[in-house]
Amino acid sequence: MTKRTRLYTRAGDDGSTGLVGGERVHKDSKRIEGYGTVDELSSAIGVVRAALRAHDAPRALRLDAWLSWTQDTLFDLGAELATPPAKRWKDMPAMGPSQIVPLERAIDEADADLPPLQTFIHPGGSDAGAALHLARTICRRAERRVLALLRDDATVSPETVRYLNRLSDALFVWARWINDGLGVPEHRWTSKAEPPAGD
What we know:
By secondary structure, this protein is mainly alpha-helical. The chain has one domain (25-186): Hypothetical Protein Ta1238, Chain: A (Up-down Bundle). 57% of the residues lie in helices and 5% in strands. The strands form two sheets. The protein has a two-stranded antiparallel ribbon. Strands 3-4 form a two-stranded antiparallel ribbon. α2 runs antiparallel to α5. The N and C termini lie far apart (69 Å).
């Protein structure tokens, strides 16, 4: 009979958690804030992917493939942030050109299908588009958290911040791209907005 592993250990009841290798740190440390927000970002992308399942349009399938790769990359990024330098192993995945260059290619591909942006837009559109905008704002927060960690800890690679910066751009373009592909108009900002008329 297979013995079940208990999901709770009680080890974190004192407000600490373990990094890869066993070192204990406070749950609100900058390192935990960094990879915790990366985990939140991956969860938000999971919501996008769930929304895309309602569509079989070529763009939805293409975007889901990109987002699947992105979730794997974010898992690698979280592992990189959760592993102190002394505990890293040979060939451990790390952020660099092999993650950043494909994102730039994805941005260029999607942007080529879109009309030029003439004004600011508000988050929204289709379910998937709105969820991508939410993921974008979480990505920007993850970038801020990792940047704060980088300033205190020189062992954190600047490539982590560069990757998150590029990913937030990709999420923005993907939101516009899927809204356009699904025929859902964007909510454009206007400086002359008026409240709805009364009854």
